[in-house]
Amino acid sequence: MASSRQVVLRAVLASLSVLSARGASGPGNYTFPDGFMFGVATAAYQIEGAWNEDGKGESMWDTYVHAHPEYTPDRSTGDVATDSYHKYMDDVAMVKELGVDYYRMSISWPRLLPNGTDNNINKAAVRYYRKVIKELIKAKIIPVVTLFHWDLPTPLMDLGGWANPQMVNYFRDYARVVFNLFGDVVKTWTTMNELHQHCIYGYGGEYFVPVLKSHGVGEYLCVHYMLLGHAAAYHLYDKEFRPTQKGKIGLTLDAFWAEPKNSSNPDDIEAAERYLQMHLGTFAHPIFSKQGDYPEVVRNRVDKLSLQQGYTRSRLPYFTPEEIISLRGSSDFFGLNHYTSFLMSPSNFEETWAIPSMDSDTGVKLEQDPKWPKPGSDWFSVYPPGFRKIINWITHEYGKEIPIIITENGLTDFGGVKDYARVDYFNEYLSQMLQAMYADGCNIQGYFAWTLMDDFEWKDGYTSKFGLYHVDFDSEEKTRTPKLSAINYREIVRTKKINFNFIKNPTSSTHSNKL
Ligand code: NOJ
Q1: CA-based angle 53:59:60, to the nearest 5?
Q2: Is the Cβ atom of 194 under 6 angstroms away from ligand 1?
Q3: 193 CB under 6 A from ligand 1?
Q4: Sheet containing 341-346: order of strands
Q5: What number does the ligand 1 atom closest to the CA of 451 have?
Q6: If you measure from the C-alpha of residue 408 to the centroid of ligand 1, how many angstroms do you get, rounded to a whole number?
Q7: Domains and CATH numbers, the chain
């Protein structure tokens, strides 16, 4: 009898032949294949609001931004956000309007389990998520649910959060509650969102909450126990729920593309590869590679530097042989979030690095090409070919068998409904993705635009906008208005093609061929 994993694999292989057959039409003319998953994504803390309503517990984000209003430039919080806790019907109507078949959302762990633990389930939260899911299904939209999109219950953060090995058990307990409650209607799960951003900038640095600043030590504990937590939830689902619920479960990782600063300089090429292994391979290799475990280059560098720095043991924990086996293959798809790219060159020291830290362990300097447009936040430059390249890198590293689902991709700007830059961004990035599918044979099964509407953008508060829909945060109603990018995305989904002339940016002549 075929295992559930083999069944998933067969479906993937079958769809691969469909992709190559339809890709024959040539560059510029590619159409998205039948059954391609078009969606749009959100996350609980960024949209729900109602931070203390109906028995919800506090998340570490609630606690931190209340205590440190200066954390965001506009001294804002997610207390109300887009008020989706009350306005979820509007949200579903917007998803419907876009014409996409899928909606990626997350469940707030502290809304469901106010103490973080499974001894106390908040019934109002159960009712809320069932209503949202029911409304989606009524509108023929398939929910894709993330269990953990960064909003850890504060009582668990007080125990050390993901630096505490016990978190693996608490996460498994939480996952069991969710699968029991919603697994009859939710058939696609991602366990966790962007482990790299969460651990490196939240536990290692001070950019994200919990602002732990445990660089070089806590950040690796977070990586290690999040990976084990993911595997625990995967196996729980695989053994106890999949046989009856028959769904899929995967993981969402984030990756920038690493472009060698000088493509003919071998040192820059090596630096770019090292960066990708450190910042993506650390998370992906244990799960998606044939060998499992952390990549060799990561293991060697952190072990060697730890000893040189006077530590008795490596700052990066070791997996047991059983853990290596349990992690390997523990994801039905590769969920990829991609936004931007950086130029890479080797470096032994940068002013901005803490020592020890993953940055200094990596030994690579990051820059962005001044020619790449920068329509919003500082970290974000537009370089569409980077999307095709990172998809190819993943395919090359981990094989074509593992389906890739783009669980997030989108652009930041400073607002307005005439968001031509975002229209261009989606056109150009999707065009690169189609080339990765058809010209390079990468196995991409779905794409989720980030994000449905302007929301609480973590460190940036409400100053940075990613939405397809504009939200008037000053209005009581949190009025939502479609931007040009929503209209453009709807047209792509409707026609299954990119029409660069559908909405023309009056001030630019960019086109994928020129970038
Ligand atoms: C990835 C995160 O998952 C999401 O929450 C965030 O808003 C986007 N990046 C944009 O920064």
Answers
A1: 150
A2: yes
A3: yes
A4: 257-260, 341-346, 364-367
A5: 7
A6: 8
A7: 4-495 (3.20.20.80)
The tokens of 123 are what? 């019934």
SS3 of residue 107 by DSSP:
coil
408 is known as an active-site residue: yes
Stated length of the chain = 515
pTM here is 0.94
> What Rg do the C-alpha atoms of the chain give, in angstroms?
22
Rounded CA gap, 28 and 498, in Å? 8
> Which stretches of 358-491 are assigned E, i.e. beta strand?
364-367, 404-408, 444-450, 469-471, 480-482
Q: Please tell me if the CB atom of residue 41 comes closer than 6 angstroms to any atom of ligand 1.
A: no
Which three-class secondary structure state does DSSP give residue 365?
strand
Tokens of 29: 């003319």
Specify the DSSP element, H or E, that contains 424: helix 420-438
Instruction: Give the DSSP letter string of 449-467.
Output: EE-SB----GGGTTSSB--
Question: What span, in angstroms and rounded, lies between the C-alpha atoms of 295 and 281?
Answer: 6
Looking at 259, 408, 428, 457, which residue is catalytic?
Answer: 408
Q: For the chain (length 515 residues), average pLDDT per consecutive 10?
A: 32 34 54 98 99 98 98 98 98 98 99 98 98 98 99 98 98 99 98 98 98 98 99 99 98 98 98 98 99 98 98 98 98 98 97 97 98 95 98 98 98 96 98 98 98 98 98 98 98 97 80 37
Distance 344 CA to ligand 1 centre (A): 23
